[in-house]
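Entry type: protein chain
Record version: 2
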Amino acid sequence: MKNKSKKSIKKIGNFLREVAVVVLGVAITLSASVWISNRNEQRDLSLYLNAIKMELEENISIINGSIEYLQPDVKYSAYLRTHDKKSLNADSISYYASSCCYIINSFKFKTNAFEAFKSSGTIRLLDDKELLLTIWDVYTELDSQNEILKWYTDLKWGYIEKEVIFAENGALSSEKLTNGAPMYHFYIIGLSRDVLKDSKNTLNNTKKTVSELEKRR
């Protein structure tokens, strides 16, 4: 009986050791799996944030382009608004007419990286909610600036079309550029000044967001 009891105890001991080994193996496997999963998630988060940073840097170049486009318009508008028609210089009017008056550029800011980030589950991993809000806000501002620049460009194009009809033969004298010319009235309104201000604000906020993203690296 004693031998049977010893054998039974030994079997139970062996069984418990085997179970312990299996449990330990499963625990190690699960831990390794969780660690790998977390590492992959953090890698994906870093990739998304880097893609957003690069996209914002591209948008900074586009904003700079829009500012360069708007500045001559603002200068021409300021010139016309600060001079009466008698004091306008024919050479100055001809210069602005050729350098900006009839030039149309379109601008479209990129949002693909941010849209992919929003639609992925990775966005939940960004525990810095202030940074997330900053990114979200700057893309909202870029969308708004897209609409503003499109509105300005469409409006300017509409005035240019009126100017073509007004010119009749397509040639405008310096006198005609002021006396009843649609583009003269467009620049007197001074819309470009506010659009330029918006573009500069968007540029500053985009640069700040890129700086915040660089700090996280």
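Comment: The helical segments are 2-81, 90-101, 112-119, 129-167, 182-189, 191-216.
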